[in-house]
């Protein structure tokens, strides 16, 4: 299995076969995670640091669990609280990490491109756990795995991504991934929550949710990022729920077997009706969380293999 | 003292000619030019068939004195200017503190004259502290030698304050230079909105913000009759408004930056912060429209918008990184890209680099005519090189052209007939 990348910074640099490679390996880890002995030695001896410059409970826990199940030594660094407040720059942080001989670095940062910057300065494998509004590749991969398992394929599906797309890195990574795998992607949301010229990304744009959901196979809801709203993108939460919240009536426009997804955490009653979120015949939200751990194990495993191969090669080069 | 520049390719932006000939300099001023029999002289400079053009007058150079001398001093900027063929630097007041009193201006002028081998003409802030609340002592500052008044990249968003400042400046005949960006729309923007900014997830501003600000300022010019120059016009949508304002006889001119003429938003690529400038780089359509406007003369001047930034302020996530690029030494070779791509002739280029900025500031420079000061550059437009940013004279090395293949080398620079480079 070849995965010719040093880092996982985004979906953009991945080829369809790279994506399939991660998903196929993740399937194996789904089985491992469901077994009684949830342990492998794939990352034994390696040090994984989770560096979160932005609050996160789920993603950080998922990466931590993934690392621990593969036998890595995992450390969490909550960066909002630490040296950044003391004025240390991202590049200084990178130098510190180099000195600690980190092998895998998981980074979330509020600025688009910050993880790219860090990856240029460290000598370990970097996984982007979300940078600004740019990308969140492991979320897109876990969504892809969830869809593939629920629908039996990851191509020629009609998928609607709904809600606050402008502020969403999840949406960007999903648009890229689902496009690369040859699906029809629809974006549904009020125009104030869609990025400019998004129609040039090979997607169809809808402002009417019922129209947007017509006959789709997958309904992917996004969190309405209240903390990102620096003023008046929508008139009110209740009007938003009325027009863009997923309820039974709007969901009825989709195919009968359409699945409902949400990256979490959900705002019940804002973008999604609580009953739909809990409907186990339609909602795969809990499955997404499960796939998250498996996909992250797969991604770290593949990057660690490349890391070890590169180090072996360097060691041999030194001897020769 | 008579110096004869012989065997030259004379680039005359006033006559719009590009022809072989000689140029006679007497006591630091141009005395005559011609293409026949050359007159006698004490000293002869053989130009070897290379281009001789009036030196560049660069409006909007930032020298970081006072306040941040580690980024750029008058000495380092002056050397960079001489090496880049810039014979007159028109410096910005956005220093720390801002140049907003006659006392600071005098300090700057003294420093500049001691340290820089080229002409330095300072601009002063239009409002105190560039805060957009109270106008500066425009009269005293004019007496102290300010050639124009500007708050640089800060827009005076209070229209009442701006209209009063324009009215007052008008009474003194002072030139006001404004940044044209609707301030609320462009607040916090690091890129131009569009496909690229959406893909990269960068906070972006619509290109329309430029037109909105220009429209406001044009209305104020109709009210006040002030002398006005827009620092950088970078979008196609702003051009019709500029054209109408000129046709209506308002005292308005406009500039653009060499970066907006030669780069577009895609050059930012993987968040390369050396390409972060203010206003942000635009789409290719906008770039081409601006190049065309320079060709027709609708846009009057080209500047380097030289803005030194140290490594620390650039080595940050894109949205947090400082804006600006150094440009004194790359202005000419970058602008020559437009000559090599056959979008502009050399006389058209030097009309925007030398003649028009000098005219706008009421200087005799920028021409090859008799009585103009002998501020000259001798350059080879075709000489190729690969730019190494660490070879620049500027203390700050934040150029977007690092590693770029460029064509056009300055062979010698003369200020008042004295050779300052080459």
Features:
heterodimer; A: 320 residues; alpha/beta; 5-stranded parallel sheet; 4-stranded parallel sheet; 9 strands; 14% strand; globular; B: 422 residues; TIM Barrel; 8-stranded mixed sheet; 13 helices; 30% helix; 24% strand
What does this structure look like?
The complex is a heterodimer of chains A (320) and B (422). Chain A has 320 residues and is α/β, with parallel strands linked by helices. Chain A is built from 11 helices and 9 strands. In chain A, the strands form 2 sheets. In chain A, strands 7-6-5-8-9 form a 5-stranded parallel beta sheet. In chain A, helix 4 links the parallel strand 3 and strand 4. Chain A is globular. The model of chain A has no long low-confidence stretch (mean pLDDT 92). Chain B has one domain: Alpha-Beta Barrel (TIM Barrel), CATH 3.20.20. Chain B has 13 helices and 18 strands. In chain B, the strands form 4 sheets. In chain B, strands 1, 2, 3, 4, 5, 16, 17 and 18 form an 8-stranded mixed beta sheet that branches. Chain B has a 5-stranded parallel beta sheet with strand order 9-10-13-14-15. The radius of gyration of chain B is 20 Å and the shape is globular. Chains A and B meet through helix 4 of A and helix 6 of B.
Looking at how many chains there are and whether they match, the oligomeric state comes to: heterodimer
Examine the secondary-structure arrangement and name the CATH architecture of chain B. Answer: Alpha-Beta Barrel
Number of domains of chain B: 1
Shape of chain A: globular
Number of strands of chain B: 18
Give Rg of chain B in angstroms: 20 Å
Helix content of chain B: 25-40%
SS-based structural class of chain B?
Answer: alpha/beta
- N/C terminus separation of chain A: 28 Å
């Amino acid at each position: 299995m070849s995965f010719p990348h040093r880092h996982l910074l985004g979906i953009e640099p991945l080829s369809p076969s790279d994506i399939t490679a991660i998903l196929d390996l993740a399937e194996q880890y789904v089985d491992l995670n469901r077994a009684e002995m949830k342990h492998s030695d794939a990352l034994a001896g390696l040090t994984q640091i989770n560096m979160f410059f932005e609050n996160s409970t789920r993603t950080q826990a998922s990466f931590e669990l993934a690392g621990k199940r593969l036998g890595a030594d995992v450390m969490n660094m909550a960066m909002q609280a630490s040296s950044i407040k003391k004025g240390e720059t991202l590049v200084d942080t990178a130098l510190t990490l180099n000195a600690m001989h980190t092998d895998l670095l998981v980074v979330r940062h509020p600025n688009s491109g910050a993880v790219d910057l860090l990856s240029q300065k460290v000598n370990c494998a970097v996984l982007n756990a979300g940078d600004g509004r740019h990308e969140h590749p492991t979320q897109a991969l876990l969504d892809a795995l969830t869809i593939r398992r629920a629908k039996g394929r990851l191509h020629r599906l009609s998928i609607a991504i709904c809600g606050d797309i402008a502020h969403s890195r999840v949406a960007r990574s999903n648009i890229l991934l689902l496009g690369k795998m040859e699906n029809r992607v629809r974006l549904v949301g009020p125009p104030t929550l869609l990025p400019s010229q998004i129609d040039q990304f090979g997607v169809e744009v809808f402002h009417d949710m019922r129209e947007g959901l017509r006959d789709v196979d997958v309904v992917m809801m996004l969190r309405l990022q209240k903390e990102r709203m620096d003023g008046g993108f929508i008139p009110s939460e209740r009007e938003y729920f009325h027009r863009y919240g997923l309820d039974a009536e709007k969901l009825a426009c989709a195919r009968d077997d359409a699945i409902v997804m949400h990256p979490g955490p959900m705002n019940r009653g804002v973008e999604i009706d609580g009953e739909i979120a809990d409907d186990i015949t339609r909602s795969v939200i809990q499955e997404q969380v499960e796939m998250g751990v498996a996909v992250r194990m797969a991604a770290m495993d593949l990057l660690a293999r490349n890391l070890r191969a590169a180090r072996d090669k360097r060691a041999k080069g030194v001897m020769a | 003292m008579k110096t004869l520049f012989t065997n030259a390719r004379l680039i005359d932006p006033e006559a719009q000619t590009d022809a072989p000939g000689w140029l006679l300099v007497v006591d630091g001023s141009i005395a005559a030019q011609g293409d026949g029999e050359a007159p006698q002289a004490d000293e002869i400079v053989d130009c070897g068939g290379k281009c001789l053009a009036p030196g560049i007058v660069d409006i909007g150079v930032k020298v970081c004195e006072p306040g941040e001398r580690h980024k750029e001093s008058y000495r380092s900027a002056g050397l960079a200017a001489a090496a880049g063929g810039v014979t007159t630097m028109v410096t910005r007041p956005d220093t720390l503190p801002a140049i907003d009193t006659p006392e600071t201006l005098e300090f700057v002028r003294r420093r500049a004259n001691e340290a820089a081998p080229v002409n330095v003409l300072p601009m002063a802030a239009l409002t105190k502290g560039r805060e957009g609340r109270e106008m500066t002592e425009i009269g005293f500052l004019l007496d102290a030698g300010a050639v124009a008044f500007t708050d640089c990249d800060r827009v005076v968003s209070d229209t009442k304050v701006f209209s009063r400042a324009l009215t007052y400046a008008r009474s003194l005949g002072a030139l006001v230079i404004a940044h044209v960006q609707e301030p609320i729309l462009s607040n916090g923007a690091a890129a131009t909105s569009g496909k690229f900014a959406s893909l990269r997830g960068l906070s972006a501003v619509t290109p329309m913000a430029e037109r909105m600000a220009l429209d406001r300022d044009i209305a104020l010019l109709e009210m006040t009759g002030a002398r006005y120059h827009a620092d950088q016009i970078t979008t196609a949508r702003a051009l019709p408004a500029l054209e109408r304002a000129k046709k209506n006889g308002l005292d308005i001119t406009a500039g653009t930056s060499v970066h907006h003429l030669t780069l577009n938003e895609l050059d930012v690529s993987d968040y390369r912060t050396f390409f972060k400038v203010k206003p942000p780089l635009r789409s290719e359509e906008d770039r081409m429209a601006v190049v065309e406007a320079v060709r027709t003369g609708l846009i009057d001047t080209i500047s380097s918008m030289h803005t030194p930034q140290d490594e620390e302020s650039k080595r940050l996530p894109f949205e947090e990184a400082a804006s600006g690029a150094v440009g004194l030494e790359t202005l000419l070779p970058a602008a020559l890209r437009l000559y090599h791509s056959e979008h502009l002739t050399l006389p058209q280029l030097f009309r925007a680099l030398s003649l028009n900025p000098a005219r706008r500031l009421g200087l005799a420079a920028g021409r090859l005519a008799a009585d103009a000061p002998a501020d000259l550059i001798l350059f080879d437009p075709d000489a190729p090189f690969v730019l190494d940013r660490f070879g620049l004279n500027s203390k700050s090395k934040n150029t977007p052209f690092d590693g770029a293949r460029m064509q056009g080398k300055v062979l010698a620079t003369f200020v008042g007939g004295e050779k300052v480079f080459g």
